[in-house]
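Hi everyone,

Forwarding the result from last night's run.
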Amino acid sequence: MDCDINLALIASGSGTDANSIMQAWKFGCIPEVNSVLLISTKAKAGCLGKAYKLGIPLETVDYSKSTQGQKTKKDKETTFGKKIALTLKKNKINLVFLVGCIKMIPTVNGIAMYNIHPADTKEHGGYMMYGLKVHIHVLERIRDKISRGWKKSDERFFTYPTIQEISPEYDQGQILLQGHIEIPRLIIVQLDERPIDELAKKLQKHVLPYEWLMLPAAVRMAAKRILT
């Protein structure tokens, strides 16, 4: 290989997406990557425990702690971004995947950086669009189209989890890999009967296993881009 691929996974929560990559790497399914580091943006987040159990090196750059004393949101983001960049450079990272990271992470020169979004970024991306909010937005759009007669409830509906390059603007980076996942019919037919957040949780639970399949493949694709 022309260079070592040192991967950092940045997460903020339970770390199920990060775990899919860490397990795949641990069992030799991502041979292009030389080392993996988990960075948590929140102290005591569940992702740290998952990394520890797999013997993956870990660090915490806690957003709240690292931005103490900063008054404006812009100042906090700048300070936090600098601390993340220092951590990446200290560990000689050249590939980053944001996996369940709810904080804005700026691009760093010389490092390939990607993010996973749980749906199509053009239709359901942007500021504050993360986690359950995205699935709610997907279902609200479908319900609206059905109510206006543009679609019928017995048609097939899909959602598109997307792995893309990080860009200065929210969710506008080049797409690396995108899924094409059919939404279960039971969710669609209940759109007028059940609370939208309840159905969004079901959709999130349905989509997550596909994300876990996509992420190791996306890491391999991104690593091969660097190596070639």
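The first strand starts at residue 6 and ends at 11.

Cheers,
N.
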